[in-house]
Design a protein that fits this description.
Elements: H1 4-10, H2 16-33, H3 45-73, H4 81-107, H5 110-122, H6 128-143, H7 153-174, H8 180-190
Helix pairs in contact: 2-3, 2-5, 3-4, 3-6, 4-7, 4-8, 6-7, 7-8
Length: 211
């Protein structure tokens, strides 16, 4: 069963941006209160600044990202599945491009990372909501027969969004990568969501017209 915070991503009503922003603000408040086990906020103010910057970026970018994922869910049965997935993948690239450097700064401090992990678990924040949104969309399309019946929708969602994160990491590290739209098209095609075509007859073999 979804918590109230998780259902904010999938809600059909308005106010999605405010609901997601509220999640981040709650996490920020918990971080500022420090670790309840020790009462300590941070050993180094610069570390706290890294967490503060990361949460500020989340507050600004996460509601937009969540709305794109919600829009994906509303497109079930409409248009082309690959065309529907492309904006979600592009939004994932844009989201992680904006937050990756700040997130890495938090990862560099083990104490802050553990604390952030605890707070995220409390407020149901993290990439799982996006993965689940894409998986739900693909499952609905599979039920309509618009993608192959043997597609593992959860695995496909992880492959798509994980590849988008890898693209951002590679572009950030090396300073170059394929254009985002080209990369997204290649990754979606690589998911092989469509029905598999029948194998053509071997070369030199006549088709069997018996019957």
């Amino acid at each position: 069963m979804e918590s109230d915070d998780q259902s904010a991503w999938a809600s059909a009503t308005g106010g999605l941006g405010d609901a997601v922003r509220h999640q981040v603000l709650g996490a920020a408040a918990d971080i500022m209160r420090g670790d309840p086990a020790t009462g300590r906020v941070t050993a180094d103010p610069s570390d706290q600044s890294a967490v503060t910057l990361y949460l500020a970026l989340l507050q600004d970018r996460l509601p937009v990202y969540a709305r794109v994922m919600k829009d994906l869910g509303s497109r079930v049965g409409e248009g082309d599945v690959a065309d529907n997935l492309a904006p979600a993948a592009q939004a994932t690239i844009g989201f992680y491009t904006a937050i990756l450097a700040a997130k890495v700064s938090v990862f560099a401090n083990p104490d802050q990372l553990v604390r952030l992990r605890q707070v995220f678990q409390t407020h149901d924040l993290g990439p799982q909501a996006a993965y689940e949104g894409v998986a739900r969309y693909l499952t609905a399309e599979r039920e309509l027969g618009r993608i192959a019946p043997d597609v593992d929708c959860t695995a496909a969602a992880h492959l798509l969004l994980g590849a988008c994160l890898n693209h951002v990491f590679t572009k950030t590290l090396l300073g170059e990568a394929p254009p985002d739209d080209t990369y997204v098209a290649q990754i979606i095609a690589g998911l092989r969501l469509g029905h598999r075509p029948e194998c053509p007859p071997a070369e030199g073999t006549a088709p069997d017209h018996a019957g």
